[in-house]
Amino acid sequence: MKTLLIIFLSISLTACSLGSTAYKHLDYVVLWYASDYVSLDKSQKLHLSEVTKHFVAWHRSNEIEKYKVVLAEFKQDIAQQTMTDERANYYRQQIRLFLSKVRFYLSPHLIPLLNSLSDSQYTQIVEALDKEVNSDKKPLTSDEKIKKMQDELEEWYGTLKPAQLDILANINAKREVQAPIWRAANQAWLDTFKEASKQAQTPRSQAIKALLLETLTPSDSGDYSEREEWMQVWRLADEAQRQSILDKLSEYQELLDDVSN
Fold first, then answer.
1. Tens digits of per-residue pLDDT, 78-99?
2. How far is CA 65 from the centre of its chain?
3. Which of 36, 76, 94, 98 is least enclosed by beta carbons within 10 angstroms?
4. Are 187 and 202 in contact (CB under 8 A)?
């Protein structure tokens, strides 16, 4: 169910989602991802690497144990079949708290990094983002989108029931109606980034920082939600599916134990 996936994608927050090896060497991972958007010089690479190492040290010391506690609570709710709308909302609030801690940590460290970028480097970033947002890649068909959701969900649940697959089709239909709004929001974000990148260094860095931190801020919009549909998928889970979820959560617990050492 999407609730499970969202919760644990977020709880893992640069930990489980990457795997323990990637987490422990996150500086290399960040440099690798950055290379898709901009060519950094040696001093910039060293600076980014050091900032990332400090982030991992802070994250391991201050956040991982909190993730373990919430993960254990979540697993207990799955095992005892006590996952309710109220409990799901509790976990969403925990994710918001975890994300706010990361935003708070990153905030003072972004400006020096952004100040080091030249006009030509910002041009590279804008071009890469433009290509990403306005990709000419052939979009997936409705059936392909549903199959992708099914494959991702079956990594948690095992084989899905026909009634659960029907719910996935309903979710996809909702997403297709919402898709133009999401595309417009992505384009608006990119347009704002482009305009900010043309400013002088100080206002540019402040504006770009705000945009980057915005991506770590969960939406408060109540106009669109899939919560009820994903809870319906969960309510249809049988014993074998619940056990599959518990096994997956055990893997995450092992990963958190590993990255905390």
1. 999 999 999 999 998 998 898 8
2. 19
3. 36
4. no
Residues 4 and 231 sit within 8 Å (Cβ to Cβ): no
* Strands of 12-128, DSSP E: none
**8 Å CB contact between 74 and 91:** yes
pLDDT > 90: what percent of the chain? 67
pLDDT of residue 27: 83
Q: Report whether 52 contacts 27 (CB < 8 A).
A: yes
* pLDDT, average across residues 179-188: 92
- At residue 18, the pLDDT reads 60
Tell me if 231 sits within 8 A of 1, measured CB to CB. yes
Tokens of 222: 């109540």
For residue 137, the model assigns a pLDDT of 79
Q: How far apart are CA 174 and CA 176, in angstroms?
A: 5
Domain that holds residue 47: 2-259
Residue 179: both structure tokens together: 């898709």
CB 16 within 8 A of CB 252: yes
Q: In the chain, how many H helices and how many E strands? A: 12, 0
> How many domains does the chain contain in total?
1
Q: How far is CA 246 from the centre of its chain?
A: 22
Handedness of CA 162, 165, 171, 176 (dihedral sign): negative
Whole-angstrom distance, CA of residue 116 vs CA of residue 201:
9
| Angle CA 143–145–148, to nearest 5 | 110
Three-state secondary structure call for residue 135: coil
Give the chain's largest Cα–Cα span.
60
Q: By the 8 A CB rule, do 137 and 230 touch?
A: no
Tokens in use for 198? Answer: 């043309």
Averaged pLDDT score across all residues of the chain: 88
pTM value > 0.85: yes
